[in-house]
Amino acid sequence: MDDPQRFLPLSAHQFHILLSLTGGERHGYAIINEVHERTDGAMRLGTGTLYTAIARLAGLGLIADTGREDDRRRYYRLLPLGRAVLKAETARLEALVRHAHARGIRPSVPALPRRS
Amino acid sequence: MKARAARTVRMARALHRACFVFVPRDVRRSYRAEMIATFDAALADAARRGAVAVWTLLLTEIKDLAHSRRANVPQSLAFPDDHGAPTKPAWIESSLWVQAFRSLRRRPAFLVAAVLTLAFGTAITTTVFSLVDTVLLKPLPYPGADRLVTIYESSSAAREKTSLVAPARLEDWNRLNRTFVALSGSYTENVTDTSGPDPERLAGRRVMPRFFSVYGTAPLAGRTFTEEEERENGPGAAVISEPFSMRRFNGHPAALGRLLVIGGRPYAIVGVMPAAFTNAAVDVWLPAQLSSALMRVRQARFLGGIGRLRPGVPIEQAAQDLAAVQAGLAREFPGTDAEWSAEIGSLKEARVGGARRGLAILFGAVGLLWLIAVANVAGLTIVQVHRRSRELAIRSALGASRLRVVATMLREGVIVAVLGGACGTALAAWLVGVLRAVLTATPRIEELTLDPRALAFATGTSLLAACAFSIVPALGAVRARFGPTLSAVRTSTGGQHHIQKSLVVVQVALSVMLVGSAMLLLRSYHKLTHVETGFDPADVITFHVGARWDEDRSRIGLLQQQLIERLEELPHVQAAGMANFLPATGATLRYQVHVEGLAGQDADGAINAGLRMIGGGYLRAIRAPLLAGSWCPARSMAAGAPGTAMINQRLVELHAPGQNLVGRSLRLGQIPTARYTIAGIVGNLIEDGHGSPSAPYVYTCDPPGSWPDPEYVVRTADPRALAADLRRLVRELDPGRAVFGMRPLQEVVEASLDRPRLDAVMLALFAASAVMLAAIGLYSLFMLLVTERAREMAVRLALGAAPSQIIGLITTGAGRLLGAGLLVGLGLTLAAGRVLSGMLFGISAFDGPSLAAAAGALALAAAVSVAAPALRAARIAPLIALREE
Lengths: 116, 885
Fold this sequence. Notes:
The complex is a heterodimer of chains A (116) and B (885). The longest helix of chain A has 23 residues, at 80-102. The mean pLDDT of chain A is 85. Chain A is an alpha+beta fold and 116 residues long. In chain A, a hairpin with a 2-residue loop joins strand 2 (63-70) and strand 3. Chain A is built from 4 helices and 3 strands. With 885 residues, chain B is an alpha+beta fold. Chain B folds into 5 domains: 2-72, no CATH class; 93-142 and 354-493, no CATH class; 159-338, no CATH class; 494-530 and 751-885, no CATH class; 547-737, no CATH class. Chain B contains 29 helices and 24 strands. In chain B, helix 4 packs across helix 16, helix 5 crosses helix 16 (402-438) and helix 19 (496-529) packs antiparallel against helix 25 (754-788). The longest helix of chain B has 37 residues, at 402-438. Chains A and B meet through helix 1, helix 2, helix 3 and helix 4 of A and helix 2, helix 3 and helix 29 of B.
């Protein structure tokens, strides 16, 4: 079994893509829409970013193509390693936030990814 | 409507697919069809919401595709040991640079703007400094060049104060002085070499003894002249130039020992001088071998003198020394030497002095440009630091030391400066090549290379500037972590706005000045090209036929007469003639002219007038208008006939308005024996160049042979046939002579416009660069303002302000700065106009259209550069902007 720590840190895009797949199988456009809604429009994945990230995540064995396909779109699912990495990343981020809180850093808004 | 929507969708799909080139190849290969399908689905959804949604989607997609390569790079903080990842190996230190670069790549607009600004600034500064240094500052390419001086004679009594030197006097000065290593001299003599199958005309110089040793340059091959070769009736020897040896003998080793045949006499090539030895295009140096008779004539002045001072002797002391020597000579030869003295000047000043003014203006312009460039990089960097102030504060809050944060910014600054320097160096190398090809008339231009010191200066200052402007605001941002909240960072560096605003005002002002000055020169050039020339240069061909000053005048006279007669017999030739100098070529003889019955402006009743020696149908060939009287009769071509002359209208207007001067007699002050009858009056030609007011001119119709090497002019309907006919005629009439320098008269006359055109174009280039830089400055300032005031604008929008009002807010601010800049700039332009006024023709320095154009150009540039920030402000999403705080 691969060490999930090896894949850290994840990019925000990768994190959100993995997060979307925890709800079950999705095709690319569904992932885009879900991330868009979840972040209140702050993160709008484009096809370039999405499929580059999917290619990498699939290449690393974090997600897999289900083989199901409709209207030229493939569905993807989260692999156990992917879930483990997602957990490890969440733990890492939590640790970071704890460190920040310990120093008295408490931003008034949740740290959503910013629009570039 | 539906068809239009369908067209938009089709175009969006095509654009989307075109951007696949940005996607990593493996991703593209495996996911292409899916990416298209996903985009189609998104597009279908967007199309239901309307055209704006389609465009928004397309723009986001294009931007996203362009950035897809970094989609796999963690966007977390750029400090490896800040985010709790396993300890990285030591090489990570070097990858901090990679991270800095990636961080920059995430902001391509800033990166491109900053790198371009620095590249532009570096290239132009370096190139122009190299130019100024090569032409003005660098010593001439001779050993101990600062000790080389030009020597002329001077007489306060003579009309032309400075005169060439008489060989007899030069030898006396050389013998009697105590401050020179040696003196020598030379004169131009274009010769015809008949050693080859066709006669070839060579640019030659006859040199006095010691000529090469005064310059001190060693020959590339062979030797210079021996004492025996310098003597009267000595053996014929020639030293040739490197370019000539390449052209004729394919290199200098093969040239040594070959024979040139000049004037029927053999000259053995004994040496080859390197190309840098002379600034003029000289092919061959021949010993003057002056006759002892000529050496006794103390009034034959025809040498350009050159001298080498002894080490440590200042020019003034040498001048005193020669003055003392000349005083002695005046006692010895009171008749010929009493009124004359020696005039010494630095050789360098003589060679490059004329280019000084133009180059000084260029240097000033480039200095301004460099200031603008540096100011812009400062502005761009400050904007960046502002936009990232929150990120910086988070980093330092998360424990990154101040040093580390500053080091990050510093790394980015260094990368920008290095990229800018590299692009700038490449650009400068290219520009130097262009200048060498274009500025052929500038002295010493062939020595121009990229100056490493200038390059070091430009890249060094850009490095310093980029670093300083990254560190200072970064320090401010880091300090802010002690503030109550992170959002307070936003206001912590607000004080810099004044600096930034002043920078923008200064940039606008300087750009206005450069554009205004360029416009003045361009309009002045335009006026110059539309000056009434007074003649018709179209369809006129000019050429030379090789002839020497010391050859038999009756022989060359016969050739000239026969050649012009035979040319005029050709069916395609309308008229043919000759003149000693062509109009607008900068060459003129001036005389004191006495016209019968006229009191001139002088005390002794003379009129100062320019003189052209003409022959054949010269004035008819160039179609000068005959206003009164008749052309010179053809018989005046014959030697011994009474002289006739033409005068121009200007002379009549100035000195004899309303009088009929035709038929009166005229004589030249300096040559009392030369008497002419005025045959007719011609219109004013631009003899002294396009920009000069017409002056009185006398055209003397002299017998053939009076000027051995004149400019022949032929008006022909068929220039190509003329070239063939001409060579045939010259071969038939006098086979040993070369025909050369064949050019359309139009080209010769327009050559005098090269300089003003070049000045105008150079300044226009600078002005364009300055406007571009000022636009970048405005853009970065307003981007900063918009970013900073995002919250304020969001509140306004949330409270119901229309986007157009937000745009109005931005444009008003920009308009105010622009107005201030324009005002200052127009003032500067007027001041610059005074400096330029000597270079202007036909317009004043207070030229309305030029000023208006300058103001208009800047207003346009400002509108373009403020558009993006204004639109961005209007698009601020209230919710997100507010939440960010």
